[in-house]
Write a structure and sequence with these properties.
alpha/beta, 21 strands, about 15% strand
Length: about 675
């Protein structure tokens, strides 16, 4: 029988998780009435249901219809008179809450009620098993463990990287009273949102999902935030939670070596322009992520090009596009953003496409968030939480089935199952509408592989941009780069002043930026082999005690949703493991080889049933041997169940007692 490490205990209703966002009741009647006039009614009903504890808000006549698209469905399908009634009754409840005349909220909702309410809000059947996960995403239930025993002031965790996952880990350790230091190669926090500053850069996940569950941002200016606003959020987060004072900026990690005798890690770091030094730590958490090493193609003649040739992830803000001939190589997520941003500024944009991309429209793409929406998020309890929960379901596990291969489907090849084929038809029709009258572009732009075979993109105006007279889409393979442009295989020369490499990242070479040496001198990159990382739950590796990865192998959620949720689940797991180590006085925890291997067998079996393994196109998900290294095959709920509470039986435990120090126990 497996044994769980210390369980997560729901907080008292009056003591929400540390750092949780809670609305303020500081508002006027006039301001509330004005905001409610534009409220999202399904979201508002969910807020009232939790605030009052009454079921009447999720029963007839307050039953919204199902959304028709990915938009917000603000009216809920209600007739005008009922809309006015909902707003009037909501105003009365919220004034009573503000004035303290009613004991709101009455009680903490049980997890199954959260699933039930969301089912009503979306007119969709959300399984009851999602309740606790939804509560965590909404900031109602806690998502980390703190040690029960006093923490030795000398105990230290070293986090490598101050990007999204590194900051999340640091904040949780700080809340748990555990000492830590963060080593960050850049001069600022934020990771990818600090480094990527190319024109048009922004998130292709809805803004309200792209924030920590316990510290969301009610003030996003747009539904899909631009880079500068994202960077500002993560910087403010570091300030608000006191993380900066623990960060060694401008410092690279060169190696991490485990000292088995001392059960500690010796980490060699090098400050910019300085000499190497060694830091010691009881725990090392790698938070370098997957998308941090640019993939630069080996193009003949690239070094001979006279103008700037820059990767999007290493953009030089001094580059001026105005009036220039710009060649963009690649058609992935960064190209989808940079090409529309450059068109109309540059004299000409030439796009070199190897593979056409599926891209879906989103009604909120490019839209500003109304002031009324921001007011409600700031002042109405659970309003932002329910908005986030709706996004989490609709853009996450609801679409998971689209990626699963039905071996009996008669049209395998164009699609992997019936629903996937319906999506293909809808996306194809969208492309044909966008490119109506341009059969040449349609032929180049409709992919020949199933949807989700490559990363699904949000359309940023890509197809409309391709129609412009100053934009050219080239599908002939590149033959060579010349001093003043690009020659394709058909012999045509395309003049260019600037080359933009929108070629993505070397995602499969996980943790390639530094050397990790574990027990018995084993080196992680040798254990894995080139581009073939594996870990138990994507987090721990046999032979490397007290070493944890965040956003490690096979943890990328390729079916949608947000990387933030998966990251928080991993932080949840790591914080629980560290708490158990401290509470039990253990020296080290090392995942068992059999647990690691069994998990990876399950993983491979599940991946073999996905659209990514089906083939038909190249993708950064797979290594040179075809194995999927980056993506997870699991639904969020499946992965959450695995990481919610670490199993002690999965670990070899080394005790600090000298009598048993050399004897790992199960």
């Amino acid at each position: 029988m497996s044994q769980s490490l210390p369980p997560f205990s729901p907080p008292d209703w009056g003591a929400p998780p540390a750092g949780s966002f809670r609305p303020t009741a500081d508002f006027t009647d006039a301001a509330l009435d004005a905001a409610l006039a534009d409220a999202n009614l399904p979201v508002l009903l969910g807020a009232l249901a939790l605030l009052t504890g009454e079921d009447r808000w999720i029963e007839a006549p307050y039953l919204p219809t199902a959304p028709r698209d990915l938009g917000d469905h603000d009216t809920g399908g209600f007739p005008d008179e009922l809309r006015r009634r909902i707003r009037a009754e909501a105003a009365a409840v919220l004034r009573a809450w503000r004035d303290g005349s009613e004991p709101f909220p009455a009680a903490q909702p049980p997890p199954e009620r959260l699933s039930r309410v969301l089912s009503v809000l979306l007119a969709d059947a959300i399984p009851a098993e999602y309740g606790t996960l939804l509560g965590e995403e909404m900031g109602i239930f806690p998502r980390h463990s703190a040690p029960r025993a006093p923490v030795d002031p000398g105990f230290r965790v070293l986090i490598i990287g101050a990007g999204v996952s590194g900051l999340a880990m640091a904040i949780r350790l700080g809340q748990a009273g555990i000492g830590y230091v963060v080593v960050e190669k850049n001069d600022e926090v934020g990771g990818t949102w600090h480094e990527n500053v190319y024109p048009g850069c922004g998130v292709d996940t809805p803004s309200h999902l792209y924030a920590l569950s316990f510290d969301p941002n009610p003030g996003w200016s747009t539904y899909f935030a631009p880079q500068d606003e994202l960077a500002a959020y993560w910087r403010a987060l570091a300030d608000r939670h006191g993380v900066r004072e623990h960060i060694r900026f401008g410092t690279r990690v060169e190696a991490a070596v485990y000292d088995e005798t001392a059960a500690r890690w010796e980490v060699t770091v090098r400050p910019a322009g300085g000499a190497a030094e060694t830091l010691t730590a009881d725990i090392v958490v790698s938070a370098v992520g997957l998308l941090n090493q640019p993939s630069v193609p080996d193009l003949p003649g690239l070094a001979d090009f006279r103008g700037p040739a820059v990767h999007t992830a290493r953009w030089d803000p001094a580059i001026e596009l105005a009036g220039k001939r710009v060649a963009v190589i690649g058609t992935g997520a960064s190209a989808m953003q940079v090409v529309p941003a450059a068109a109309g500024v540059a004299a000409k944009v030439t796009v070199f496409q190897r593979t056409a991309q599926w891209a879906t429209p989103h009604p909120n793409k490019g839209r500003e968030v109304p002031a009324a929406f921001r007011f409600l998020c700031e002042h109405v309890p659970f309003y932002l939480a329910w908005y986030r929960a709706r996004l989490f379901w609709r853009m996450g596990d609801k679409v998971w089935g689209l990626l699963q291969v039905d071996p009996g489907y008669p049209d395998l090849g164009r699609a992997v199952n019936k629903s996937n084929d319906r999506l293909r038809a809808a996306l194809t029709a969208y492309i044909e509408r966008e490119l109506d009258g341009r059969p040449d572009l349609i032929a180049k732009s409709v992919p020949d592989y199933p949807p989700y075979g490559k990363r699904m993109l949000i359309d940023c105006g890509w197809f409309r941009t391709l129609r412009r007279d100053d934009v050219e889409l080239v599908t002939e393979p590149i033959d060579t780069i010349t001093a003043d442009g690009i020659r394709t295989a058909d012999g045509h020369h395309h003049d260019a002043d600037i080359i933009v490499l929108a070629t993505g990242f070397d995602a499969v070479n996980v943790l390639a930026s530094y050397r990790v040496e574990g027990r018995d001198g084993r080196v992680l990159r040798d254990v894995w082999g080139a581009g073939d990382g594996r870990a138990h739950l994507g987090i721990t590796v046999p032979g490397f005690p007290n070493f944890f990865c965040l956003y490690g192998p096979n943890t990328n959620t390729g079916h949608g949703g947000t990387v933030i949720a998966g990251t928080e689940m991993q932080v949840q797991y790591v914080s629980a493991a560290i708490a158990a180590l401290l509470d039990n006085g253990w020296a080290a925890m090392e995942v068992r080889q059999d647990a690691h291997d069994a998990y990876n067998c399950e993983l491979d079996d599940a991946l073999a049933r996905t659209v990514w393994d089906f083939g038909g196109t190249t993708t950064y998900y797979r290594n040179s041997r075809g194995r999927i290294v980056t993506n997870s095959p699991w639904r969020y709920i499946d992965y959450w169940k695995r990481v919610n509470a670490p199993r002690q039986a999965d670990f070899e435990i080394t005790h600090r007692d000298a009598a048993v120090a050399a004897t790992p126990t199960r």
